[in-house]
């Protein structure tokens, strides 16, 4: 099933721990940023991953990632992460995610009021049984919430 939902936005600040020795965000940290944004997207429906696991035995695992890196993020940048459900299936979801640098006016990043696209990713997440790690349906209550916003 195709979904193409409206983007969910979540902001994050780049900290020293996110950067390499050159002060640029280490490439793998974009996957962490995307993960955090998906977690907050899930919370926006009133679902927490630990509660889902405890009450339904369902957990989500990443099956596939693809990230295009377009421009570097740096220490102290404020980023806007987006989450869009592109495909919703019975036991999996495919997300399109982006990381944007917000204008700061500090002279180091765009101060013209425009955001800069830094990275674009496609992430496939599968719902699995917590005990067996075998695919299982996404809990119906969550599936209904996702369908209602797509």
Brief characterization of the structure:
The chain has 150 residues and is an alpha+beta fold.
What does this structure look like?
The longest helix has 15 residues, at 29-43. This protein has helices at 29-43, 49-56, 140-149; strands at residues 8-13, 58-69, 78-88, 92-101, 116-129. A hairpin with a 3-residue loop joins strand 3 and strand 4 (92-101). Helices cover 22% and strands 35% of the residues. 22% of the residues are buried. The chain has a five-stranded antiparallel β-sheet, with helices on one face. The N and C termini lie close together (11 Å). The model has no long low-confidence stretch (mean pLDDT 92). It has 150 residues and is an alpha+beta fold. It contains three helices and five strands, in the order βααββββα.
Topology (elements, then pairings):
Blueprint (H helix, E strand, L loop, with lengths): L7 E6 L15 H15 L5 H8 L1 E12 L8 E11 L3 E10 L14 E14 L10 H10 L1
Antiparallel strand pairs: 1-3, 2-5, 3-4, 4-5
Structural category: alpha+beta
The radius of gyration computed from the alpha-carbon positions, rounded to a whole number of angstroms, is 17 Å
| Strand line-up in the sheet with most strands | 1-3-4-5-2
Tell me the number of helical segments per DSSP (H or I, 4 or more residues long): 3
Largest sheet, in brief, is:
5 strands, antiparallel
Helical proportion?
Answer: 10-25%
Spatial shape:
elongated
Q: What percentage of the residues does DSSP assign to strands (E)?
A: 35-45%
Which segments are poorly predicted (pLDDT under 50) over 5 or more consecutive residues?
none
